[in-house]
Amino acid sequence: MSRGLFHKNLSLFKKREKRLFELVVSTHLPSNFHIFNTKSGEPTLKVGEISFHSLKSPSKTEKENIKEWAKKINISPNQDIFVFGLGLFYHIEQIASFFPENKIVVYEPDPRFLRAILEYRDLSDITDKIEIKIGSLIPLDLDFHYFHPPSLRFHSKFMSVIRKNKKIKKGVLPPLRLKILVVGPIYGGSFPIASYVANAFKKMNYQTEYVDCSIFKPLYEKIQENVLKEENKLELLKYLNYLLSQYCLAKAADFSPHLLMAVAQAPLLNQTIEEMKKNGIVTCFWFVENYKILTYWKNTAPYYDFYFTIQRDKFFEELENIGVKNYHYLPVAADPDIHRPLELSIEEKKRYGSQISFLGAGYYNRRKLFSRFLGMDFKIWGTEWENSGPLIKHLQEGGRRLPPEECVKVYNASKINLNLHSSFTAKGIEKDGDFLNPRTFELASCQAFQLVDSRRYLSEHFAIGDEIICFSEDEQLVSLVDYYLKNPQEIKRISENAYKRVQKEHTYVHRMEGLIETIWKKPPLRWIKETEDEKISREKLIAVASKDKDLMHFISSFPLDADLSLDEIVSQIDIGKYELKEYEIIFLLMKEFKKEFSKAL
C-alpha cells in the first residue's frame, strides 16, 4: 500500500462524502484480503477462493465484460445505473466509460472493499456521477442493472435475504422468521442434498436445525457386517429406524419448528410424522429419487402435508391414485458455496484432471457407452465399477467414493465432463429419461463443461446449444467429444453461459424459496397466528422514527405496505459490529424480553 495514494484518495472522499470518509478511516483490511499486482502491473483482489478481477489484466477483462453487458442493456441517457458490488472498482470505471452521461450508484454492503480501493487504486479521475453507498440497507424496490459476479458470490447470503424480503413485500413469502427442521438420510446420494437444503435455509435467514443422521452410520454398518441371520438383521435395523425416528421427534420437541423438511430416505416413521403434525408442524418431503426404481413413496407420501418430486407426469398420476393431493415438481439444484469454479494447483490438475472424465456409479448403461473411450485420456471416478472389464484401467484411486469437495476438483480439472444419467434398463442412453440429476446443475455451477444425455425436462432449465450440449445417440457423443476437444473457445462460451443460468435460477436457495412459496399459497394456521402475534405496526414505527434519521433509514429497508415482525427486524441487526445504535439495542432487548416472558408462561 502507498501511504501517499491512500491519503490522496482519502482527501477526495473527505470533500465529497464525510460519512464515507469517517467509515473508511475506522475500517481496516483483514489478513484474508489479498491484494497483489497482476501481469499487467495493475492490482487485483482475492478473498479466500474468490478472485474479484482478472489475475492477468483486470482493466482489459472488465472492459470486455462491460462491453458485452452494455450491448444487452437498454438505458436512457438520464437514467441512473444501479450496480451491486465494488470489487476493486475496475468494472465501475468501465461502466462510467461506456455511459458517460449517466449517474452510477454503487451499493456495497462491506466497507472493507472501499478501504481496499482507497489504498490501492488512484481515484483522481472519479467523477461526481459516481455515487457509492456502503452498508446493508438496500431499498427493496431497487432493481440493479449490473451485478458484479464475484461480489454476488461473496455476498450470497446477504443477497438471499434481500431477495427474500422482496418476496415478502410481494406477499409470496411469509413475513415470519421460520424455524425449520431439516432431516436427511444416514447415507447415500441424497445425503449431501440435505446439507445443501439446510445451508439454503440459513442463507435465507431462517432459523435452521439440521438433524445429521449420518452420526448413526457406524452402528448401521456394524449391524450389516456382524449379524449373519437375515431375520435378526432386519429386526435390528427396524429398531434402529425407530430409534432414529424418535431422535428426530425429540429434536423437534426441543426446537418447535414451523416446518419439517425431510429429504429422501430420511429415517422417519409414519407415526412420527403424524405426531409432528399434531404439534402444529407443517411436514414436507423431497423425493429426489427415480420413483420407478425406489418405490417406498407408496407407503410414506400420504402422511406428509406436502410432497415434492423431481418427476411429474406419470408419477403425479401414481400419487393421485394413492390419495396424495399436495404434490409439486421441484428439481434439484447446486450449492454455489460448494459447487464453484476453483483455481487448482499444478498437483491437483495432474491428479484430478483429464481430457474426458466421468464421476458416478458404474451402472450397466454407463459401462456399455463408455467403452467407446478406451485408450483415451479418460478418467472414471466413483464406486461400483467392479468387473467392468477393460474400463477398470480408467478407474481412479481404487473406485472410492469422493466427497463433494473433491468432486468439484474433478469437475474443474476436466476438459469434458460426461454426464450420462443412470439406468437399470437402457443399454446406453435412456430414450424417455425425464428428471435431471444433481450433477447437471453442479457441473454448470462449477463453470465446468459437460455433455449430458437428452432429457425431457432439460430444455426447461437450460438453453440447449447455448448453455448446455446434449446427445441422444452413442455415435453423437463420440463426435461431440472429438469436436469440443478441438474447440476450447466453444467450451468456454457454453460453460460460462451455463454458470450464469445456474446462479440466476438453479441454486438450492431458489428451490427452497419455491418450496416456501408453495406452502404459503395456503398459509398454515400456526404461521398466520404467529405472524399476527409478531406484528409491529409500520405506521407506529414511522411515527417514532420521524425524528431519527438512522431508524427511518433502517425501516425503509423492509417491505413497504406491510407490518413487520420482531424476528425479521432483529435478524437484520449486525450484532457483531463494533457499536450498536440505540434503536438496535432497544429491538434486541425487546426480543430478549419476549423470549424470557415466553419461557415463564
From TrEMBL:
<dbReference type="Pfam" id="PF20157">
    <property type="entry name" value="Maf_flag10_N"/>
</dbReference>
<feature type="domain" description="Glycosyltransferase Maf N-terminal">
    <location>
        <begin position="80"/>
        <end position="131"/>
    </location>
</feature>
<dbReference type="InterPro" id="IPR055259">
    <property type="entry name" value="YkvP/CgeB_Glyco_trans-like"/>
</dbReference>
<dbReference type="Pfam" id="PF13524">
    <property type="entry name" value="Glyco_trans_1_2"/>
</dbReference>
<dbReference type="InterPro" id="IPR045376">
    <property type="entry name" value="Maf_N"/>
</dbReference>
<protein>
    <submittedName>
        <fullName>CgeB family protein</fullName>
    </submittedName>
</protein>
<feature type="domain" description="Spore protein YkvP/CgeB glycosyl transferase-like">
    <location>
        <begin position="371"/>
        <end position="516"/>
    </location>
</feature>
